Amino acid sequence: VPGESPLEFCDTDHSNDIVKIESVDLLPNPPETGAELVIRATGTVFETIDKGAYVNLVVKYGLIRLISTQADLCEQIKNVDLECPIEKGILSLTKAVEIPKEVPPGTYNVYAEVVNYDDKPITCLQATVKF
Q1: pLDDT tens-digit profile of 60-101?
Q2: pTM of full prediction above 0.85
Q3: Which of 105, 116, 40, 107 is nearest to 73 (CA)?
Q4: Residue-wise over 73-96: b if at least 16 C-beta within 10 A, else e?
Q5: Do 6 and 27 meet the contact criterion of CB atoms below 8 Å apart?
Q6: In this structure, are strands 64-72 and 54-61 parallel, antiparallel, or unpaired?
Q7: From its phi and psi, is residue 51 left (phi > 0), alpha (psi between -120 and 50) or beta?
Q8: Sequence-distant contacts of 53-58: CB under 8 A, at least 24 apart
């Protein structure tokens, strides 16, 4: 993924993705515990994203699976001050989040497959972050 972040596209075909991510920047990069993390992202939405869209999310700490869940995308995007439907066009977002200093040191692997209500792929991202 272009920009200053550990994000990578999943090893899948992205030619039919509904969102083309142009860039993602994390400040600081890599993220630090006990500090604010600012996320800036821009991309293009090619089809409306609406209720029923979901995220398959897996988070591992080393080899240990911490999270494996399917989350409602329209519920989750409220955390970045967006709401469904997300219409076609250019999309930019900036969000600041606190990374707790209690996060255990180690390597975290994140996998997020994002799918629209009609099962068309929105995007798929993965990252490895070390604290």
Answers
A1: 999 999 999 999 999 999 988 899 999 999 999 999 989 999
A2: yes
A3: 116
A4: bbeebeeeeeebebeeeebeeeee
A5: no
A6: antiparallel
A7: beta
A8: 53/84, 53/114, 53/115, 53/116, 53/117, 53/122, 54/114, 54/115, 55/112, 55/113, 55/114, 55/115, 56/111, 56/112, 56/113, 56/115, 57/110, 57/111, 57/112, 58/109, 58/110, 58/111, 58/112
